[in-house]
Structure formats: C-alpha cells, structure tokens
Amino acid sequence: MARLALHPIGSALNAAAAAANREAMTPLKQRLLDKREAVHSGWGASYIERVHKKGKLTAWERIERLIDAGSRPLAVGTLVNDGELFGPEQRPAPGAGVVTAWCRIAARWTMVIANDNTVASGSWGPRTPEKIERAQEMALKLRVPVVY
C-alpha cells in the first residue's frame, strides 16, 4: 500500500497577521453584506409596498412562511447581474429577478425557487433562466426536492 507523507503548506499565522487580515476583510465583508441587502430589497421599498397593497407577499416573505421555524434560508446566486443595467430604462435586475435558496422544509433540505415580484413583477430577465437551471442542477445532483 502506498504511503502519503503529509506536510503543512505555508507558514503559521501569527496573531498580528491574523488581526491585520481581519481588519482588511472588514470593509470587504460590509460591502458584500450591503450588496446582499440591496438584492434582498429588490427595486426598493416602494415596490414592496406595491406588492403589499395587492394583498400579496414578497418572495422572501413567502419563503419565511414556508420554511421550518428557527431555520434560515441560504441564498444561492445572490449577486447574479450585480452592477449591470438592462432594458430601455437601464434598470438593474437584482438577483436576476428570482430568489434561489437552500431551505429546511419539514426537516428536509430543499431548493426553493421564487420569482421576486419586487423586480419587474417577477418577470424573467437576463440570466434568470440560467440561475433557475443552476439551482435545479444543484438539487438534482444532491437528490433534494425543489419547491418553485
């Protein structure tokens, strides 16, 4: 039988270097959180209010009611279309207008796909089909159900 000798790669991280790395990562982490929050709110509060006036729930509100109590959705492909503008009005399509997330439903991992009705009323835009297809492929490969 072959023997594989394992050797550590790189050098040990000292406390000063670790602190410097944490400090350097703080603004980057905040930037990522801000982008995620912007995608989460779709086209903004006025569109969320419009959805509520119709007596409907946003995609994230529907997901929150669907998942197991105490669990939280783990979004996938959140930054699809980040920074790009589309259509004659040159508007963003946050998250490609669709939410894809791993969720616990009835104590089982599930891929949830929900049209974001705060972004162009949930219509499909650039990269929406690709995002949906990718979510379905992940679920298929992991043999978990999909809730659309």
Task: Output the keywords.
single chain, 148 residues, alpha+beta, 4-stranded mixed beta sheet, two-stranded antiparallel ribbon, 4 helices, 39% helix, globular
Strand content: 15-25%
Strand order of the largest sheet: 1-4-5-6
Approximately how much helix is present in the residues? 25-40%
Oligomer: single chain
Characterize the largest beta sheet: strand count, sense, and whether it forms a barrel: 4 strands, mixed
The parts where pLDDT drops under 50 for at least 5 residues are none
- Structural class, by secondary structure, is alpha+beta
Number of helices: 4
DSSP summary, beta strand count:
6
User: Which overall shape is indicated by the principal axes computed on the Cα atoms?
Assistant: globular
Report the average pLDDT across residues.
91
Separation, N- and C-terminal Cα atoms: 49 Å
Rg value? 20 Å
The sequence of SSEs as H and E is: HHHEEEEEHE
